Amino acid sequence: MPHRTRPMPALLLFTGLNVVLCATITPVYDFVCFHPYWERRRERRRQEREASIAHGSK
Asked: Residue 2: its pLDDT value, please?
């Protein structure tokens, strides 16, 4: 006897999971992209770039 599938609970679970993921993607994206680490890294790289340009022009 083959295994009996239950398409309705599976569909509800799949839909519910997608709703949760879609609802949480914006806060997670904002947290990751606008984390202070990236701003510090950008500033550090800018300073290193300016230092290398100033050092190279001497």
From this structure: 65
Please give the radius of gyration of the chain, using alpha carbons only, rounded to the nearest integer.
Answer: 25
Single-letter residue type at 33: C
**Amino acid found at 18:** N
pTM tops 0.85, yes or no? no
Q: CA 38, 41, 43, 46: dihedral to nearest 10 degrees?
A: -120
Q: Say how far residue 1 (Cα) sits from the centre of its chain.
A: 45
User: Backbone phi, then psi, for 30, in 5-degree steps?
Assistant: -60, -40
Q: What is the mean pLDDT of each run of 10 residues along the chain (58 residues)?
A: 78 95 92 92 95 81
Q: Which two tokens stand for residue 57?
A: 């022009």
Task: Indicate the Cα dihedral angle 38, 44, 47, 48, nearest 10°.
Answer: -120
